[in-house]
Write a structure and sequence with these properties.
Blueprint (H helix, E strand, L loop, with lengths): L7 H5 L4 H40 L7 H25 L3 H18 L12 H6 L4 H15 L3 H28 L3
Helix pairs in contact: 3-4, 3-6, 3-7, 6-7
């Protein structure tokens, strides 16, 4: 072969290390995006705590780490439920409407945030046990207002952990079924 000729055999037999490097780069970028999401979520929680203290004078009476653990469990539940809704929905419009009906309205109305659960009809009181925000509101009230510990809030955290695990398993099954 001359100097200007191309050997196509060597062009097609690339060593495996560039492919491995490229795959590792994508894995690294995916992990970086996950960490960025966690950082943004943590920053939002810290900003909300700071604004609550500066603007309204609400100080944290309990453990910061307990509040952070409860917030993490609630976020796992909320994000898993959102993924479950978007996986099950046929279109984006349907997913948006279902998300409002399944997450936003029950979280606002049935979580002891706006209306006390004790004043609701008996049927709605039973339905509130399915709303993750109910347990998160109890955790926040316990940590912020009553300075309670894990012995009191352990049940709420266990329920949030169970709900999150259940939704992650359901997401896994649905995504496997779709071939993802």
């Amino acid at each position: 072969m001359g100097n200007n000729e191309v050997n196509y055999l060597t062009m097609t037999t690339w060593p495996t290390y560039p492919v491995v490097y490229e795959i590792n780069t994508w894995v690294w970028l995916e992990e970086l995006s996950r960490q960025a999401g966690r950082f943004i979520t943590l920053a939002n929680v810290l900003i909300a705590m700071l604004l609550g203290q500066v603007l309204f004078g609400i100080t944290l009476k309990g453990s910061f780490w307990l509040m952070l653990a409860g917030t993490s469990l609630y976020l796992i539940c909320a994000l898993s439920l959102g993924l479950l809704i978007s996986t099950a929905a046929k279109s984006q419009l349907m997913a948006n409407q279902a998300a409002v009906m399944i997450t936003y309205l029950p979280s606002l109305l049935l979580s002891n945030f706006v209306f006390p659960i004790i004043n609701m009809p008996a049927l709605l009181q039973y339905f509130t046990y399915l709303v993750p925000a109910r347990y998160y509101i109890d955790i926040l009230a316990g940590v912020y207002l009553r300075s309670t510990g894990l012995s009191y809030l352990g049940h709420d955290m266990a329920v949030l952990g169970g709900m999150g695990t259940l939704m992650i398993v359901l997401n896994y099954i649905l995504l496997k079924k779709e071939g993802l």
